[in-house]
Amino acid sequence: MSGLLSKERIVAQPGFNRWKVPPASIAIHLCIGSVYAWSIFNLPLTRAFGVVAPASNDWSLQDVTWIFSVAIVALGLSAAFAGRWLEKVGPRMVGVVAAICWGGGFLIGALGIYMHQLWLLYLGYGVIGGCGLGLGYVSPVSTLIRWFPDRRGMATGMAIMGFGGGAMIGAPLKRFFIQRFYEAPEYLGTVDQLTLITQAGRRFVERAGEQLEVVVIGANDVASMLVPGPEGIYVVGTGSVGVAQTFLVLGALYFVVMLIAAFSYRVPAEGWQPEGFVAPTEDSEQRSMLTTHNVDIDEALKTPQFYQLWIVLCMNVSAGIGVLGVASTMMSEIFGTTLPSIVDGAFAATYVSMISVFNMVGRFIWASSSDYIGRKNTYWIFFALGIVLYCSVPFAAQQVSVNPAVTWLVLFYGATMVIFTMYGGGFATIPAYLADVFGSKYVGGIHGRLLTAWSTAGVLGPLAITSLRESAIARAIEQLASQVNPADFQTQFGAGLDQLDQLVAAQTVTISRLMEIVPAGTVDPTSGLYNGTMYLMAVMLAVGLVSNYLMKPVNEKHYLKE
Description:
Blueprint: H1 2-5, H2 22-32, H3 39-45, H4 61-89, H5 91-115, H6 118-138, H7 141-147, H8 152-181, E1 187-189, E2 196-199, E3 202-207, E4 210-217, E5 232-235, H9 243-262, H10 282-288, H11 297-300, H12 304-325, H13 327-335, H14 345-373, H15 375-402, H16 406-438, H17 443-450, H18 452-481, H19 486-493, H20 500-505, H21 511-514, H22 531-549
Antiparallel strand pairs: 1-5, 2-3, 3-4, 4-5
């Protein structure tokens, strides 16, 4: 089996058409790129017991968002350690192991959801699946750079384009299977038909001498249901959100596709060059930082350029990845309450798919453009324009809360789509940037080491967005609670304002439920939950802009002695 997977078995014969290689890399990246549609899982995972709304024992959004972060951390770390292994064994071996890890991670994650064991979900999808992400991510990059030395930016754009487009296919697939396996919980009736009991912040209904825990769906909650249903009272622990079954199906599907793609890899023979290719001259090296020399993997870590590029990638990714992890939830929260007739669950899922489309297109267009305008100039555009666009999001959110017009939805949609073209373009351009600075011989291994910046960003971005969001929610609930009539609060929740903390912890009191009893004319604060995050992302981009501005060619003392 090791012989079948060895690097020697996949060396291309003379006359091999190099354009047969990109489809295999794109197929693998389409599979692992579905991680960008993780936010589709957020809602069902936080309603495993309540189904139509979060119950007291359900996981919080912060709990499940961190699974995405762990997967990204594992991606970067596995890519860093696998760099040299990739150069030794070749992309087929690495691709097969990636298929086993990514597909297997889904299966273990499904078990964790079924048993409601969060640690199994972290281990399966986060750690094991994340290792599959890292191995699958780096396997085609150095291969395509060697096949296309004449168009490095275009090659890396093709290699990584599929990763950005993974959510384009993954988001509708996930939504389809979740709805296919969804089972509505037991419906007991409307609020005025039953007597609710509140204990330690939780809601119960007594039936045949037994207390049943329930969740209450009000008028403001219907739009956020996975599958629309009537207002009223539902029994906790009945029905199914369908997410465990979805994990099982996707794990098997991704494993098969990635395995076929891995066996389609080919590498060029030693010394191969495309017909008519002319190596860059020393003059062009001085103009564009395109080196004719090579730097060893370990030696690259001794240069300031490696750490400058690390900061460039980390800041660019941090600014986008936090938004990616909660994209569906963010769209629903900012516009779901102000424009409920337009922004429903299907719209939010489509938004995630469109992020994937622009992410994918941006990877190819920006990376290809960098062949002409230069990598440094390309990143300058990413950071300068990105700062402006991130600052425009709070403006749109503030305006739509006062004037619920579609104009602000269009502004938000357009700004975020451009942001994600540059987010994807940053990923696709960085391998070519590395090849320019350090040479192409060890670019796969150096790229793997640099992806630890992605691991760091996978913590910074989601940490920023979830922490600031939770703080904003706590402030909003406290402010709204101070405006409600205590008698109305007692009627709505079956407990007094003095038990607010308990009710919030049990997820009984929410912004949407409070908005049902606040004085008329009170502005719903939900649309502003992400304002602080957007300004923080703009600051991160400013740090990346400075690091990119200071980039210079590598000192010749680091060059590999030919």
